[in-house]
Design goal:
Elements lengths: L5 E3 L9 E3 L2 H10 L7 E5 L5 E10 L2 E11 L7 E5 L4 H13 L4 E6 L10 H14 L7 E2 L3 E2 H7 L6 E4 L15 E5 L7 H8 L4 E4 L8 H16 L2
Parallel strand pairs: 1-3, 6-7, 6-11, 7-8, 7-9, 10-11, 10-12
Antiparallel strand pairs: 2-5, 3-4, 4-5
Helix pairs in contact: 2-3, 2-6
The structure holds S-adenosyl-L-homocysteine.
Length: about 240
């Protein structure tokens, strides 16, 4: 599979269909990757699995794919949600990319008292997740959920679903195995405020997890936390 260009499409996929590339895909294939008629790429759409597709026409910002053999059937990833306070733009991109590689199925930005970013660009989040999914051979792109304020998130959280909260300097144990769906909450650069920590401590569905004795940057905590939750969930 090395070297295959993988592209996400929103169109239905089945052998023998012909589908249009988006202008961005056509431009990328023709001008960036220098692909031409007869070249094969791999397409997936998060629903129908993964297919070989032959480029049958390509010009400027238009291209047509003829779908060939099915490479893999669709496989659902276990549900895993990352809830994180948006960081600086490049760091947020990094977080979304790594979360996608680590198998997160839902990404939700959360605004906490100390969250620096005032606005988030969900289209940009989605584009980052799509590119990462194309690159890491996922069959689906993580869903980007609407941003929410921390207290609204906690207020609406189903009480029978655990929320693992990464909290530094907490006397937290390693999470025990629980069935899906998993959810991990990571705070902003400045950490959670005492008010937020007190509120979370009162909620039985919030399970504090420690990621070790050192204070990690938020983006490091996302990666370490996802690896830990995933390891516990899949046992
Ligand atoms: N500036 C804060 C630290 C914030 S770290 C301070 O010095 O107190 C940013 C986020 O990463 C935190 O909100 C927490 O969710 C997570 N985090 C960092 N280190 C962690 C650790 N050792 N265990 C659990 N979570 C951690």
């Amino acid at each position: 599979m090395t070297g295959s260009i993988r592209l996400f499409t929103t169109q239905a996929l089945a052998s023998d269909l012909n589908i249009q590339a988006t202008p961005e895909q056509a431009h990328y294939l023709a001008n960036v990757m220098r692909r031409g008629v007869g070249d094969i790429v791999v397409l997936f759409n998060g629903v129908d699995g993964e297919f070989n597709a032959e480029i049958t026409a390509i010009k400027r910002d238009r291209a047509v794919f003829a779908l060939r053999d099915k490479l893999r059937p669709q496989l659902a990833l276990p549900s895993m949600t990352l809830i994180f306070a948006p960081l600086k733009r490049d760091t947020t991109t990094f977080v979304i990319e790594k979360a996608t590689e680590l198998g997160v199925t839902h990404i939700r930005p959360v605004f906490t008292d100390r969250t620096q970013a005032g606005r988030v660009n969900l289209d940009r989040f989605h584009a980052t997740a799509r590119e990462a999914a194309e690159q890491c051979e996922r069959l689906c792109v993580p869903l980007i959920d609407e941003p929410v304020r921390l207290f609204d998130l906690l207020g609406a959280w189903p009480h029978d679903r655990l929320l693992f909260a990464a909290i530094e300097r907490a006397d937290a144990k390693r999470p025990e195995f629980r069935p899906n769906p998993a959810a991990l909450l990571v705070g902003p650069e400045g950490g959670f405020t005492q008010t937020e920590l007190d509120a979370m401590r009162r909620l039985s569905f919030v399970k504090p997890i420690s990621l070790g004795p050192l204070i990690l940057r938020a983006e490091t905590a996302v990666i370490a936390g996802l690896a830990l939750v995933q390891a516990c969930e899949s046992r």
